[in-house]
Design brief:
- The protein has about 450 residues and is α+β, with helices and mostly antiparallel strands.
- It folds into three domains: about 10-155, no CATH class; about 190-290, Orthogonal Bundle (Helix Hairpins), CATH 1.10.287; about 295-435, Heat Shock Protein 90.
- The chain is about 55% helix and about 20% strand.
- Strand 11 and strand 12 (about 420-425) form a beta hairpin.
């Protein structure tokens, strides 16, 4: 299953939005913490001021017993502190001028009560100051301050998020244009544009990437040009000596009919004949593969059955000296196909079957547009197919597959029960387009 990949633009947008949200969350936490710390500092300062005044105006006995003073409960003896303080704090505070808090609230729930406790070290001994806040007793100032803090935090967060969105949009707009231009230029490259200088894409990195792309494609184009030149030159140069060899072989055969030839001399002539046929077929294949892909092939009405038998007889020399028999079954079937590619395809498949068969029988069956070529693999009945045989008989079958794709034929090959099977379906061809209907 193909995995959907995220685009670069969407990745950048998601990264900037995530960064903005992270900054907002961090700022919110810091702002909330500063707000709470400010309230605690204000509470601690008020409690310390009240304790200092309490020490000056209250007698020692009243300080010992403890009492309400300026909204706080103050006592010099821990045991005289109210029950809510004793329940909230098991032991008296050890450090002076430090605010202690206890509440029953959570991260996302409001507390029902908050108990504040602080120890003030006076000249006459410690004083314990406490206050318990419940919802009806909470100060309106705290609510107003909290609301103002939330409004300010929301305003700053929206401003930061808008700024990040604006920067992201400007950055993407500034960067995406040269990237889109690079993409369009890459798609438009052809053999003519490779010789032109690389356009300026605003950024050195993009210009370097464009130059690398152009250099790589130029190297590939040069390699293809060299290959095409080699194929053209080699194929055309080979046609003349091959024609010379073939004509001289025919002449020699005619002359040999007039006089007796020794057996060794005839064997040499046969080997030359077989080698020239192989060179002829390979040259024809390379020439057809070197044609432009858009060039329509000339088609004509061909009897597929007769063509199969003709090629099988022509390739019979490959079975000379081998304990191999042939079983050829054909029926007349005329079809409009490119004649030369058809001969090359069927000739290569039959030649592969004859050339790589060392025992048994080669079976060639043709019924209408369906052709099956089957031959045993291995040197004897106990041998397995060699890697070369299992991979398709090398160059000949590779060239055949390219030609079948070119003219729209179907060609499948596989090994089954010790036999190599080639399965071909002939497709009619008209005006440069393969026909799907018979």
């Amino acid at each position: 299953m193909k995995k959907n990949k995220i685009s670069l633009r969407l990745l950048l947008v998601a990264s900037f939005v995530s960064l903005g949200l992270l900054l907002m969350a961090a700022y919110s936490l810091i702002s909330t913490d500063y707000f709470i710390r400010g309230l605690d500092a204000s509470m601690a300062g008020t409690m310390e001021k009240s304790a200092r005044t309490f020490e000056q105006v209250i007698s020692a006995e009243d300080r010992h017993q403890g009492q309400e003073f300026s909204g706080f409960y103050i006592a010099s003896v821990w045991q005289n502190m109210p029950d809510y303080v004793q329940q909230a704090f098991a032991t008296p505070p050890a450090e002076a001028a430090t605010l202690y808090k206890e509440s029953d609230g959570g991260w996302f729930s409001r507390p029902h009560h908050i108990v504040f406790l602080m120890r003030y070290q006076s000249d006459h001994g410690p004083l314990y100051i406490s206050q318990r806040l419940t919802p009806p007793e909470q100060s309106d100032v705290v609510h107003v301050t909290a609301r103002q803090n939330k409004e300010f935090m929301l305003t700053v967060s929206l401003a930061v998020l808008s700024f990040i969105a604006l920067i992201s949009w400007l950055l993407l707009r500034h960067v995406s244009r040269p990237m889109a231009a690079l993409r369009a230029w890459t798609h438009s490259l052809d053999s003519d544009k490779l010789s032109h200088p690389v356009p300026d894409f605003s950024y050195p990195e993009l210009n370097e990437m464009a130059e690398l792309i152009r250099s790589s494609l130029t190297s590939v184009q040069q390699a293809l040009d060299r290959e095409h030149r080699f194929l053209r030159h080699a194929s055309h140069e080979l046609r003349t000596p091959i024609s010379t060899i073939r004509s001289n072989i025919e002449l020699q055969r005619k002359l040999s009919q007039k006089q007796q030839r020794v057996e060794a001399e005839q064997a040499v002539l046969d080997r030359i004949d077989r080698a020239s046929l192989t060179m002829k077929h390979l040259t024809e294949t390379l020439l057809w593969l070197n044609h432009e892909p858009d060039t329509p092939l000339q088609s004509q009405n061909v009897d597929i059955g007769a063509l199969v038998r003709e090629l099988a007889d022509e390739m019979g020399y490959l079975l000379t000296g081998k304990p191999v028999t042939t079983d050829i079954s054909t029926r007349p079937f005329s079809c409009n196909v490119p004649a030369i590619p058809a001969r090359i395809i069927l000739g290569n498949l039959i030649r592969n079957a004859y050339q790589h068969c060392w025992h048994g029988s080669v079976v060639i069956e043709q019924q209408d547009d369906h052709i099956i070529i089957r031959n045993p693999v291995g040197l004897d009945d106990g041998d397995q197919a060699s890697p070369q045989e299992q991979t398709g008989y090398g160059l000949g079958l590779e060239l055949t597959e390219q030609l079948t794709r070119r003219i729209g034929w179907s060609c499948r090959h596989h090994i089954r029960e010790g036999h190599y099977v080639a399965d071909i379906v002939v497709c009619a061809y008209d005006n440069g387009d393969p026909l799907t209907e018979k």
